[in-house]
């Protein structure tokens, strides 16, 4: 079974505007409220592909209930730890030419809450896969993903990680099986500038060789992605299209890779599917559909480097 862990879920309040004018009253053209947070989005996209998963993590209050209701409606199994405080709300302002995001403050996760998550993970076995995705609330130590990945490794469980900053820097020490930083997060991780594909390949190879991470997918928004595995390096160019709402594009890429990898164990096919899924979500108001991904798949240019 695939499990997703979202330590920091959110209700995404996506507001579409003609123009965003700071300091003025802005009225939305259209707005949406979505159950979000990176692991939850991965579960939602897997479900769209027909792949079951169980969503774990922490939710609380009326916003937490909103997320549980949305997952129930989508027939996605979940087993969250309940918190006293409300799950955050993330505001995504989509104007014609730019996107502005305000991610809310996280509820407090106490030690006893974290212990409940660890208890749930203790029941998993080696044929399970765990996706750990998103930021960590400030009440959790920055080494949390590192500890969780180590714990899963001890049980022979593969972990898929999508995070950034110090939690990523810590977690790579534990060798997750797959990571998907974007090119900006990759540059930040090594404290180096990333100017071109060669820079990306060089740093991604370090993740692969020095940190023993089998699959490294560096996403680059409209420029597609670069995959670096143990025995191949692949450049993937994203299809051209009009980006409508890129919230969830990265999560769709993670779900796409995992879904195709489970089916084929072919990294090239998985990376191509990941880029198609990311782009299909970027071109949609909410998340991709399977049909959109299948259509875009043939427009993802794949080149072995
Ligand atoms: N404007 C866009 N046009 C086409 N594809 C996009 C666009 N934005 C994102 N994508 C697709 O989504 C994937 C993930 O996007 P990216 O922005 O790199 O992730 P993240 O949200 O994690 O930073 C990209 O590899 C690409 O396939
Ligand atoms: O945990 P973080 O890093 O604050 O990110 C949370 C946000 O990321 C999202 O999961 C979207 O992520 P991507 O656009 O990277 O796919 C939103 O649903 C959520 O608001």
Automatic annotation (TrEMBL):
It catalyses: D-tagatofuranose 6-phosphate + ATP = D-tagatofuranose 1,6-bisphosphate + ADP + H(+); beta-D-fructose 1-phosphate + ATP = beta-D-fructose 1,6-bisphosphate + ADP + H(+). Its EC number is 2.7.1.144. This is Tagatose-6-phosphate kinase. It is an enzyme of class 2 (transferase). Residues 9-282 form the Carbohydrate kinase PfkB domain. It comes from Saliterribacillus persicus. Pathway: Carbohydrate metabolism; D-tagatose 6-phosphate degradation; D-glyceraldehyde 3-phosphate and glycerone phosphate from D-tagatose 6-phosphate: step 1/2. Catalyzes the ATP-dependent phosphorylation of fructose-l-phosphate to fructose-l,6-bisphosphate. One of its GO terms (biological process) is small molecule metabolic process. The keyword Protein transport does not apply. The lineage of its organism: Bacteria, Bacillati, Bacillota, Bacilli, Bacillales.
């Amino acid at each position: 079974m695939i499990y997703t862990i979202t330590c920091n879920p959110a209700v995404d309040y996506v507001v579409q505007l003609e123009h965003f004018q700071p300091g003025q009253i802005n009225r939305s053209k259209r707005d949406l409220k979505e159950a979000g947070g990176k692991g939850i989005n991965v579960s939602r996209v897997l479900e769209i592909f027909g792949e079951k998963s169980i969503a774990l993590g922490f939710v609380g209050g009326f916003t937490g209930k909103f997320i549980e209701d949305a997952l129930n409606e989508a027939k996605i199994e979940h087993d969250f730890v309940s918190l006293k405080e409300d799950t955050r709300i993330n505001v995504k302002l989509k104007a014609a030419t730019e996107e502005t995001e305000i991610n809310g403050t996280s509820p407090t996760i106490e030690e006893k809450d974290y212990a409940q998550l660890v208890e749930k993970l203790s029941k998993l076995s080696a044929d399970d896969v765990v996706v750990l995705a998103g930021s960590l609330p400030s009440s959790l130590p920055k080494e949390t993903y590192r500890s969780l990945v180590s714990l899963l490794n001890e049980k022979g469980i593969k972990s898929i990680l999508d995070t950034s900053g110090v939690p990523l820097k810590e977690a790579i020490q534990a060798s997750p099986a797959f990571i998907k930083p974007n090119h900006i997060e990759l540059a930040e991780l090594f404290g180096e500038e990333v100017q071109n594909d060669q820079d990306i390949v060089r740093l991604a190879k370090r993740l692969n060789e020095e940190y023993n991470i089998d699959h490294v997918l560096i996403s680059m928004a409209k420029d597609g992605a670069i995959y670096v595995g143990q025995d191949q390096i692949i450049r993937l160019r994203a299809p051209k299209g009009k980006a409508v709402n890129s919230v969830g594009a990265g999560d769709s890429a993670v779900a796409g890779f995992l879904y195709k990898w489970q089916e084929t164990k072919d990294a090239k096919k998985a990376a191509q599917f990941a880029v198609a899924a990311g782009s299909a979500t970027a071109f949609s108001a909410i998340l991709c559909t399977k049909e959109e991904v299948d259509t875009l798949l043939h427009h993802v240019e794949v080149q072995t480097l």
